[in-house]
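Two proteins follow. First one:
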Amino acid sequence: MADLRIDGHTRVIAHLGHPTHSFKAPLIYNPWFAASGTRAVVVPLDCPAGALDALLPPLMAAPNVLGALITMPHKVGVVRLLDEVSRTARVAGACNAVKRLPDGRLVGDMFDGEGFVRGVQRKGLALAGASALVVGSGGVGSAIAASLAAAGVAQLRLFDLNDDATQALSARLREAHPALRVQVGDRDPAGLDLVVNATPLGMEPGDALPLDVNRLDARTFVGEVVMRERITAFLAAAQARGCRVQVGTDMLFEQIPAYLEFFGLPVATPERLRELARLDTPQENTP
């Protein structure tokens, strides 16, 4: 595999979030940049809660910074720092990609939901008319809910310990999709076609499960957004119930082609990205 050359011509994409030990994107983007000869690099930057306002604007002013990947806990808060966001980001109320236009304006888009939806559809799950539960109404959960609604699900159940966030997401979904049946405050997965953990639960050993897995039906498809482990405790419990599952990194592989297009970089297929990715390196779980 070709080495990634970093020099004075390299364009930088910052990866902003906390904690950085869970970041997988650099292990996928950078091997592709090396293989394709793209003079770009994704660099993880630890940005704890409360630090984004001080970090993002000056960072984006650097001419060789193409933009930023935004992850937890900043996907919701970053929106107010931007000059423009896409329709998907408006409905989600969150953003996971930012770039600077030639006139200096900062624009954002949201690809988490698209990546998740494309992944489950490629695994054979029909979403038109389906019922779904999304646990977590933060940035990634809001994006997945928005994309599921756009894909035609008929019933969408939302749950988050922050009820205000769930109510706000529900209102945006109802406004954009009047025919969608939205239910708030219930995380019972029984009888549903799709169940998604869109919370950070599973990032740390010993985390609680996001819902009562004993209520899962074997026919229910279960999706995960946590990427620290390929099979989280939640997915393992779902598989023990007979459920088909989607791992967290599948969402990432499916959305990266859209990210690359957003930043104006050479685009790879999900299959090529998987072939080149270095997720099995010792860096994967290094704090």
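Second one, unrelated to the first:
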Amino acid sequence: MGEFMIKQDQWIMGIETSCDETAVAIIKNGREIAANIVASQIESHKRFGGVVPEIASRHHVEQITIVLEEALKQAGITYSGLSAIAVTEGPGLVGALLIGVNAAKAIAFAHGIPLVGVHHIAGHIYANRLVEEMQFPLLSLVVSGGHTELVYMKEHGHFEVIGETRDDAAGEAYDKVARILDLPYPGGPHIDRLAHEGKPSIKLPRAWLEEGSYDFSFSGLKSAVINTVHNAEQRGKKIVPEDLAASFQQSVIDVLVTKTERAVEEYKVKQLLLAGGVAANKGLRSALEDKFAQNPEIKLTIPPLSLCTDNAAMIGAAGSILFEKGHQSGLDLNGNPGLDITIHNYK
């Protein structure tokens, strides 16, 4: 009678502290969320109109132990039951990154658990695997406060950036335009809400860049919005905020969706993923669904709102794949604010 082995469950702890969320999650077998705890700092940063790095770091120090304990409790597991610790090593705010990295290193050292450094954007992409299994080759449109990228993946753990922002990321442009309209921080959701109440009646530019390029540029659009508001003020005319928000959002979405559609066709992918904090934008989600949902050849995957903004479940999901591929980090792991996503292109 032949022997057979029962495969043990894999339990990965994910830790995310790259910006202003202190997050810890426990992921079972790469796809099942056993716990996903997020301590947000939005209220602390709101009065400054953006994230203050020093304040973010202090909050992470205060919250990390509490969030770690809550995640273990919710998952019903102890450190001894973990297969590995996955932690965001970059990019992000260096002071914030260091809190998560050092917490992960301390746990790994104290309990003899393997350590896996994860790229923050790889995490956003792998949030989609918590929704449904990935089909290769695929393309991911990553849209967040600091990043706007088109990432091609031919297999798990292999990332090729085919287009990226040359100046302001889309999320950054949203926040700056929100300030012009005196909207509270974070501005993205407020612009999205106003856009649905207005009409895109104000003419604003779309930066297509040179022919064939998949890169993005939103700095000119942001400047055009500022000039439109200032010119109206000088002439004593009143601009309807809802219409300006709708016009701005339409300009951003037109460029994102058009370039994504072209890349999907050129790279002949089976699946399109939406990832990053701006993936929570209703206008963008709706535009992508209108364009791709009826296409039987392309599987469109959009994560729920809870997995769009920064969280640790996505880090655990990405870390699970890297761990399976044999990637481990040493205890000399450090926070790296300028980390390149191709660092994960392990064979």
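SUMMARY FIELD: The longest helix spans residues 241-267. Residues 135-302 form a domain with the Nucleotidyltransferase; domain 5 fold (CATH 3.30.420.40).
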